[in-house]
Each structure stands twice: as structure tokens, then as C-alpha cells.
């Protein structure tokens, strides 16, 4: 009897991911709204709303339809079911509508936002047109705006339920923050621009994806000022108060605008809707954002908030293509095939500055505004690409720097370069191991890093040949996602990107 009762209860369980559909509707002034897509799509995650099991109890024939107006993302929710479970004691059906109230504005439950007949002729996305591009004969535009603009904030408010539905670990943004905080946020929007022949008064804009970024102010230092001056014809000066700041009258202080002060620009949420994935829109969006940040005199570094592996791939492909196409000095970087003997003495530090000269690398990093760890990885990746695959073998470098072939020696020096970076980043964990185990762990990690680089280089080459460098075939651009751990990684690298990798007190000496 108990088993029969459980089976009956199971019949009332529904997979939330399967019954939840999302559609983009284009308003039409002459008839009912039409879908902008070939078919609706399902969310990737529903656990933030319905719990870890992603199941809904108490409904048969349940259908959840979230419609978003394709241009301004105003949502409308429709919930239908054939039958609802009658309560037995404390066991009752889940209230789907109530559970979704924290994820949608109240207007979404009025069930009219996407269905009303409206004229949207002349409507354009809020803010500034950043760039245009074409894919398969279709036209697309990327716009950006400060969230201080009410129109931009309302767009994000309406569609930010997409964040927990498609970004693992993604959370809704607090849009009621103080004005000075909201001003630091930017919203980037991709739209397909295709007029409806049947309704010339309808907007041609259909939402494709979005990203947000946050301006992170940092205390001004001489180093940051010099870096900004290095890359900008209009450098951002440091605040100066004279020899004795206490003598300066407050009302004579220069005006201070934190949005124009030295800052990091941090990419936060990043999403391309499933129907538009695999078409290089992620690369177009990331490239446009990075270009905007690089042109901003007050931004000295571009970072990403907790990227997942898929977004890392997208960024790696895009950044590598940018560096190779923009900086001839980067494209010609090569690991030397010999190093002065005195630099390789057993008790000397690994000669990083000889293997990757800072007078060549630093100007590229400053101008590209790529974060230190990301730039180091790109250099390692590019340097590895210059070593033929035949010579990327530990069996060929048993004689280390005295190996017979120049490319074998380059491979030995390349591994030294990677080991140095990994050791510095993981010194606190590694020093707890005995010497032999420490060496083994670092060697294993270099092997896994090399394997990862080879995969990325091969993918980058294929995408480069197709003219789609960096497309997000696997990269749903989930920058705000909880980061999955690489299975082959032995030593962890995943630390805060805002940290610099220049603490040479942690450097290792050659044994």
C-alpha cells in the first residue's frame, strides 16, 4: 500500500525544465503578436526557483510560458495545468506563480505585456550604438547604456530572470542600489534587426543576448598613472593637493568624478540566448566590449567576474586573435633556444625575464589592458604554438638545456616559464608538500596546462580558417557562473583576476 501511495504521488511530479518554455514575441499593430523564433526554448536551470531537484509537485498537464517582448524584454507569464493535486494534510501542490514572484516584475503576472497591440515604429535600444555586423546575411547591432538610464534599467529588470535560468549560480541584480553604484554599471544588448513586412509599424529589433559590466574604482597609484599615460594621449592624472594637503581649502579641490578615475572594468553577466548560439554572437559581443574599454582612457585593466570554462574558451580565442592581429611584437614572440649558462645555475631563479622579456611583453599588456594572469596564459599559449608538436615531448628533453635540437630546448624553457607562474600562484599550498611530491605536482599541472593550450590552439585555428574566431559553440558566455573545476588540473589556478602575479618573493630556484 505504501508503494502504491508513493507511485501515485510520483505521478504528480513534473520536470520544471521540460514544462517551462520561453518565447520572444514581436508586437504587431495589425494582428496578434508573432514569435520571433522558429520555436520556443527551455531553460537550462530551474533550481533557483523550484529547488535542487528541478521538479514541480502537484500539477498534471502543467505548462509554464514566459513570453518576452522581443524589443524591450517586457515579460508576461502564463501558467496552465489540466489538474491540481488536492491537499492531503500538509501535502499540497506547489504554488508555481508564488514561487516565481521574486524573479519577475509584478507586470509579468498581468498577462498582457507581450500580447497588447502597440505601435513600436521608431523604437531603438537605449544608449549608444556600439557596432553592427552580419551573420548569414542577417544584420545585428550591439548597443550599450549606463544602467542609470531608466529605459536600460527596465529592460534588465524585465529579462533578468534569464540569469538564473541560463547562468549556473547566477543571481538577480539589485536594481535599487544607490545612484552612484548604478552609474558604474553598463548594459550591453545584441539585437537582430529584421523589419516585419506584414507590419511596417513594428520594431525591427529582436533580442539576441546581453552582458553587463561594472566599473571597479581602484586607489590611484603612480604605477597605474604611468600605465594609463603609456597607452593614452590624454592620460588620467593623479589627484594632487600640493606639498601640504592640510593647507588646501576644501572648496579649491579639483572636481572628482569616480567614473573618470583609474578603474578596472569587470565583465559580469554574459548570455547569448540558445536559439542564437553557435553563430559567433558571443565573440562579437565580447570583442565590442573589450574594444570600448580599451578606448576608455580611465580603464587600465579588463577583468571578468568568476568566468566558467566555456567563457574562458571564448575569451582565450578572442584575446589571442586580437593580440596576434594587433601587435607584431606579440606575433613574433618566440622562446629562445639557448640561455646563458650562469642563468641556469642550480641555485639561480628561473630566468623568466630572459625567456619573456618584460620590455616586449609589458607594453603589449598595458595597451591591450588584459589582466596579468590572462595575459600570461596567452603568452604561454602563443609561445607553445611556435614549437612544432613533434618537439613537445618530455622524452626529448632529458638533457634539458643541452638537448640536441633547438626546438627541444625551447620546449624545455617553455616548461620552465609555465612552472614559474604556477609555483608563484600556488606557493602556499606547494610549500606544505615535500620536495619530490612538489616537483611531481607541478610537472603534472604543466602537462594538463599544455593539453588545455593545445586544445584551444587547435580550436582557434579551425575557427580562424572559418572566419569565426572565438564563436561560442560551447560558450554560453556564463561569466557569472560558478566555475567548474578542470578535471586534469592538479594545482589550482583559479584565483581573483584582480590580483597581480608579480610577487617574486615566491619564486622558485632551479634544483
UniProtKB/TrEMBL annotation:
Compartments reported by the entry: Cytoplasm; Nucleus
Major location category of this protein: cytoplasm
Catalytic activity: L-lysyl-[protein] + acetyl-CoA = N(6)-acetyl-L-lysyl-[protein] + CoA + H(+)
Disordered: annotated span: 463-511
An MF annotation (GO) of this entry: histone acetyltransferase activity
Residues at the site labelled Interaction with histone H4 N-terminus: 180
Protein name, UniProt field: Histone acetyltransferase type B catalytic subunit
Species the sequence originates in: Patellaria atrata CBS 101060
